[in-house]
Structures are given as C-alpha cells and as structure tokens.
Amino acid sequence: ERGASLEPSHPLARGPVASPPHSVDAFVKEFLRELNYGQGVPLSRSSLNDQYLALARTVRGYLTARWLETARKRRSHTERAVGYLSAEYLLGRQLDNALLATDLTQIAEDALHACGIELDALRQVEVEPGLGNGGLGRLAACFIDSMATMGAPCIGYGLRYEYGIFKQTFVDGRQIEIPDNWLSMGDPWEIAHPEMEVPVHFGGHTERYVDEAGRDRVKWIHGWDVLGIRYNYMVPGYQNGVVNTLRLWRARATRAFDLDIFNAGDYAQAVRSQTFAENISKVLYPEDSTPQGKELRLQQQYFFVACSLYDFIKHTQPTDFDVRDLPERIIFQLNDTHPVIAIPELMRLLVDDYGLEWEDAWGITRQCFAYTCHTLLPEALEVWPVSLMERLLPRHMEIIYRINEGFLDEVREAYPGDELRVRRMSIIGDHPERSVRMAHLATVASVKVNGVAELHSQLLRDKVLNDFAELWPDKFTNVTNGVTPRRFVRQANPYLSKLITDTIGVGWVANLDRLEELEVYAEDEDFREKFRAVKAANKERITRVLQRRDGIALPEGHLLDVMVKRLHEYKRQSLKLLHIVTLYDGIISGRLDPASVTPRTVVFGAKAAPGYRMAKETIYLINSAATVINADPRVEGRLFMAFPANYNVTLAERLIPAADLSEQISLAGKEASGTGNMKFALNGALTIGTDDGANVEIRRLVGDDNFFLFGMDEPQVAELQARGYRPADYYETNENLRSAINLIASGHFTGGDRDAAGLFVGDLLSNDAFLALADYQSYMDAQARVEAYYADQEAWTKSAILNVARSGYFSSDRSMRDYIDRIWHVKTGV
Ligand code: OAK
After folding, report:
1. Scanning 83, 505, 571, 628, which has the fewest C-beta atoms within 10 Å of its C-beta?
2. Is the pTM of this model over 0.95?
C-alpha cells in the first residue's frame, strides 16, 4: 500500500506495531538485527557484552509492544492509578524476569543455541541495578512486579542514581567500598527521553503580591534550578500482556544556568555548576534506616518528587484535566518519609500555580497521599532542620508552617488545654534543633498510615505514633509485606518450581495460595525424597556459584545456616557470631566433642553503611573468626563459615533456595517486618527467629512445630529495659557466654590483637543496646533444638514442605490486594 499517509489517526500511528512472533526463527532474526544494527557487529565478531545487549534489546522489543498497548488502554479510561513514590528500587537483574514474563525463556535459549551462544553465559554479563539499600528498596521492586501481574494501574517513580549501592570487597577482613558504576557498559533496559525536561527549582525567597482578582498570593523567586530527565523502565506482569512503567529521574543542568556563567567568561565555573546540578542524581546514600541529614539528600528527595508530580499532572493526564479531579485519578503511596516533601509540593502547585484557595487545595491534597512507615528505630525517623528547609525550599517551609497551624488547631480543639500533647504532635520539633518531623507531616496529610507487619503496625499505633492513632484511629492500618514469587521462587528456584508444578499443576506462580495444595504431600515419602533432592541440587548450585564468584569451597553434607541482611546492631549478627564462637570454643577447650556437633556451614551476607563503625567492626570480626575456625583442624571440618562479599539480589536468588536454616534473630520490637524471612520460608528453609516483625505471622502460619522460636518478646524487652538492663550480669553468670566473649577479647581471632576486638567486646559488656546477651542462652538452646531436629531428616523435610505449603500468604500479590482493598481502591485487570 504505497503512499498510505500515516496521519495521527492511522492505526499504525495510534497503536503499537505488533510484537515479533513467538518463535525461535523470529527471535533469531530479531537478535541478529539487534546485534548487527544495534551493536554494529556481525555475530562472528561480537563480544559477550554485545551479545548480552542485543539479547536484552530483543527481549525488550517483545515487551515494548505490550507496554505501548497497556499505556494506550490506560489513556483511554480515567480509572484511578497508584503513584508509588520511592527513593529506592532494588530491582535485581532484569533479563530472566523479562524472559519469564513474556514466556520466552525456552525460545531464547533455542534461538541463542542456534547462534552458538549459551543463554547462561549471557545471564552472567548483566550488572544488577542496585538502586536501593535493602528491605525498603527491594519491597518497592516486588510491589511494582505484583501490580503489573494483577493488571493494576501503577507508575513507580524514583531516582536514576548514576551510582547504586556500593560494591563491597574485603581487604584483610575489612569492608572496602567500591563505587557501583552500573551504567558503564550501557543499560539496555532503560528508555531515555532527554527531550522531556521537567524544571525543578531550589533556593531563593518568596514574595507576596495581589493578583488581578485582588487576592493575596505568593510567588517563589527561585534561586537555582535543574532539569529532570525521564528514564522509563518496563515492568512486565507475569504472562498477562500487561507492562507497567517505572519512571526514574536524572538531574541535568539547565542551559540558561551554564550559559549565563559561560557568557560572563568563566568557562570552568560553568562546568563546575553543571556538575553541581548533576550531582543530585549521582549517588544513592548507603545508609539503611539511619538518615544522615545531608543537604544533597534533601535535594534528591525534592527533585524526584517534584518531577513526578509534574509528570503525572502534565504528561499523563489529558490537556483539559482539572486538578480538582486529582483524587479520582491518583493515590500517591509514600514509601517511608523520603518522598514526603511531595505533600507541600502538591499544595504549592495547587495554591501558587493553579490558584486554588488554601482550604480547597488542602482538601484535595489530603486525599492524594498514603504513608507507609518501615521502621521502629527512633534514629530512622527523618527530620530536616528548619534552617536547611528555609534555605533550600523556602516556599515549602512556609506551607509546612501553615499546615501545622491548621493541624495544631485541630489538636487543641480535640484536647483543650493539653499543650504537652500539642508539642508532642507538632510537625515542627524543637530539640535538639528546630526541625520538620517528616513522619508527622506524612501522618497528618495521609488518607491512611500503615505499618508493614501486624506487630509493627500495632507498635506504630501504640507507641511511635500513638497520639495520632488516638486522634484518628481509623487512619491506621496494617499491610503485611510480601515478596514476588516470580523472582524469588519461580526464577530463583527452578528445581522446586518444577516439583511444585509437577505436583499441583501450573497457576501457582500468580496465585500463591495454591501452595496449600502441597500440604498433603508432607506425608508422602516419595515427595519428601524429591524435595530433599531439590535442596541438594540447590546446594550444589550455590557451591559452584561461591567457588566461581568468591573462591570459597563449601564443604559437602552440612546443614546450611544462612544470615543475609544489612549489617545492623538491632539485627544482631553479633548474636550469630557468639553462637559459632561458643561451639568452636567448646570444641577447642575440650568441653564439646566435635563428633557431637552437627556439621554446619554458616553463610553471612551483609553490607555495612560506610560510616557505621560498630557494623564494620562486626564484619571484621566475622571474617577473622571465619579464617581461624575454618583452618583449625580441631574442628574436624564440622564448622565452616563463609562470608561472600557484596551480597546483592543476584546472590540472594542463588543462596536462599539452598538454605536449610534461616536466621531472623533481631531484638523483638525492632525489625519492622523483614522480607528475607519470607523468601526463606517459601524456599523450604526453617526459621530460627524471635517474635519480631513478620516472623510472628510466619510462625503462626507455618505452625510452632515448624519454627524455632527463641528470645524475649516485645513486652519482655520493654520490661527489662524499664528495670535497667545490665549485660555484665549475663556475662558473669553464664559460663559458656563468658568463655566465648573472653576468647574473642583475647585476640584469638585477630592475630593476637586484643584492641582489634575491643570495640565489639567493650560495647557488648557495657552497653549492648539490642540485648544480645539477654537472649543468648535462649538462642543457644534453640540452636540445640535445631541440631536434634535436623538429625531426623524425615521430620525436618516434613517441616520444610509445610513451610512452603503454608507461606503463600507472603506473596506480594496478597500485599497488593490488601493495599488495594484497604487504601488505594483502584481497579485491577486493566
Ligand atoms: C530504610 C530507611 C528508612 C526507614 C526504613 C528503611 C528500611 O529499609 N526498612 C525496612 O523495610 C523493610 C520493608 O518494609 C522491612 O521488611 C524491614 O524490616 C525494615 O527494616
């Protein structure tokens, strides 16, 4: 049809061009085209990286047609969408996930094979985007996966950091951080839109004026600005044809900004100021749950949130869109307090730019946000000094003051004369310096506030945000976290997935409750044997991975005991270390016959925030103990410690399916939820854990007989702390504990250097803020129960199967269902 004109109304101009066919031949053709015309090389001269990039772009091509189609459908109706605002998305590798979502894994494998390439070799090339620190960022990634799989309208908004979470290496057992230059080889998954610039302003001052209608208005005279550049990532649903969007922002200098300076003749200064602007999206702050209060961090937060609100209103809505309809179109979910500056930003847009009356704007804003809190640590509750806010965002500071005025009036009305309460609840705090309490601002403006596990939500209501829960009891709710079964079961554990599918059929991957059907097979000897074979195969796989990746030679036939999570005192890696050292100490002192010790390999994975001294000392001690214990012949090979550096999503996917025992040993009342705990249970590890976070729900669901509980519960912790906790009491009265601590203090693990263990030991004995010594004996007893139970492989396997069968609840699909029903009220299946 030569000459057919592609008017905007032409079908080819409106809809996506069809996806390439699902066949090996078509795939080969697309792949070679990407290699030749995309990478500019023939197959015969292509590098592994060329091949990976061409493969990724080929798969992306299949996704794109679905993505355009999803976007077209979404534009054609006005259903409410979720805007997930998160400073972190810890995505993990994309290739396998994209292949699985499009059901192309086998086709890709065959197509590559036809080209003489192994898919597995290309998988290894992918650098994982580490745009998050830990639990909070990984949760965001699981949630957007689930939203796409449920066909629910959702845009993820965040930051495209040029450097993600640092790469960890060990030098003489100490953590060294290396910048994560994840983009250096090119990112085939992103689609940049450098032409769609969003202006973002900072600094300056405000001025009052009277508009034509005689109304008092405020103008923000900006100090400086940057541009937000849009990067889209496709978020495919699982084999349902839906592809949602993750939109990340990069900062770029404005041209005017450089030109002014350039024209003034200072070229070097122009380049410097460009760098200054672009620093905003340069690097992810590596602190997990401990904000550093850095100015650049506040710039990052405002930058991505300002871009996102502007983008949603101006770019995703029709041109005749009325901002008064905003609550019908969007609910912004605040992933902790990092994006909370969005609240005054929306007020600013509505009042200053759209000219709404304050009360109308506030009425709209209060319907557009919901807030998830992810912590219980007081030091993790973000505050920003008023002085910094006034300098960086003067208009927002005024708006926050005004929101606070209205709010405190409400408090005074509800509690006349209770000025103490007013002070406690104020959005502005006075100590140690005047600052904005972001959690209070979020709570005041949000439709709903939720914690991330039942216990956590209860503690939020009863303790951290108690005054607010009294004022607005209906605002508070719980949504227990979940993890995506696509990545953490189907992809990570193909052997188990096959066994499940062979047993209960397909369909469980997007409906994880169906794992219940496995329950009866716990009693089936033949099934148990197959289940053990799966575990054994996963152990062989992790052995190969650790050998290749880290040069670690795992012993065979051991109980595999795994503790992987950020290094934090409240998570108590210290307690795990005390357990191993006690066993070792028992053996070398002759109190414990090595033949009576269950052969056990303990694998740690943990990054410490670069400035967190105690965490880094703990890493050093674990590495030191590993070196000594692994080399000591007296142990007779019955204890082994491994600490592969740079634990990340990719390693998690290999390690978790192989684990027998999952360590979830935080001090009760400190771990908001935990999500690693869920991944282990779903992969058939048994948990040794405290009554903390989602452990409580895991234990309730899998049953007491299939979970090793130990330690104080939260009320007992509170009581002990109220009484006055003295760690030395435990040291003095517990012989094994004393002996283990003495062995560490003696320098046995640190080449005779007592000082090297000094900080760790000193803190345990005189401070021990997270009560490791108080829970020590209970932990040791529980580990003894683990050993006894593991000796009965049939019983252990039954429990492991029941863990899988009863953990379907922890699918992030269920979490999304709960958010939709309790908070978002958006439609699915669109
Ligand atoms: C990070 C920064 C500030 C506040 C909290 C965090 C964070 O990562 N919290 C973690 O969130 C996870 C997802 O909800 C929970 O599972 C973890 O328990 C919690 O520590």
Report:
1. 505
2. yes
